[in-house]
Protein 1
Amino acid sequence: QVQLVESGGGVVQPGRSLRLSCAASGFTFSSFGMHWVRQAPGKGLEWVALISFDGTNKYYSDSVRGRFTISRDNSKKTLYLEMNSLGPEDTAVYFCVQLGYWNWGQGTMVTVSS
Amino acid sequence: DIQMTQSPSALSASLGDRVTITCRASQDISKYLNWYQQKPGKAPKLLIYDASNLETGVPSRFSGSGTGTDFTFTISRLEPEDIATYYCQQYDNIPREVTFGGGTKVEIK
């Protein structure tokens, strides 16, 4: 069965960087685009970024464009989200999501606080 | 950017009641709409895809309808395990953009 396992979350100071990972299994990772979606505490869902199956096309929400970078390593079946210049508004649970079949990971919590 | 307006933001209903949630897109999205259920501390669970298709394993009391800009999600008879927050989500058919509705919190009266 499809499994998506996020990691890399934690507490980070404002202005610092963090890299999230999402390890995929149970499907042909290299055939699917992948999303990052986040959810601030007590808030709704917010789409963050999308990467095509081969990594050539990348799309970002206005709130993270220029600060976050989505990437993937198909040989490792892993999706990444490099987050720079983090602010308190980036505090959220970050989910990776399989494009098309809409399978979600369990999420990893990122807290931006001094 | 496509905006999704979901209503109501919260509702209270009795067990066995019919519950309806609506979602309106700011432009035509054809059938490209999903409905999710989310319980506290959990990832969203896909219930309905392509506006009206029931995901495998999801009880038949859940249904969806609509096309274009106006969509409806229905629970035909509310069960205790249906207490959750529900979200609509549009996805561009040339997948460049995903937008979620604001969510509807369903509680028992």
Protein 2
Amino acid sequence: GQQLNQSPQSMFIQEGEDVSMNCTSSSIFNTWLWYKQEPGEGPVLLIALYKAGELTSNGRLTAQFGITRKDSFLNISASIPSDVGIYFCAGPIQGAQKLVFGQGTRLTINP
Amino acid sequence: DGGITQSPKYLFRKEGQNVTLSCEQNLNHDAMYWYRQDPGQGLRLIYYSQIVNDFQKGDIAEGYSVSREKKESFPLTVTSAQKNPTAFYLCASSIRGSSSAFFGQGTRLTVV
């Protein structure tokens, strides 16, 4: 079935650094979603992308829908402690209204 | 305020007992979903429902059951047939035709 592969699996950075993570698939997706999950909570939608090549920002977060429609990227600029969490990419399975999720990228920030 | 409410947040059950997790939404969303999350892993789809009185199995439906008698509610029953029920369970909902799902805060089920 359709699967999403996220990398890296975990990141350990200093406060103030920029962060980049990506998500790839062997299948084409028409929508890419990026979620953040904090410990013990449900994921929160950060950014939704609907068109190949689209670049969308939400504050210090920027996400891009890859031209091939098989990948997406999330960047966080000037990281702060509250950015800590697990970031998931997700996309809808073709022909069905259900999402498939990547394994997540766990972000840890050293103050 | 509109949102998705899961209850309880923590649940403990003895092995062999069925347990039902509650999920209620007042967002007027047609579609609702149940996901399971294990430590260090992504979300896996258990069941989903696009309209009232209809639901479909996800990738890991064995040992679970659901009902959708009302638009607002989508309870999940973890049965004794589920071999490894201890996990974090997440409910989500979305507007029909939209892929953007909104999540509840989750229920952590521990079976002892």
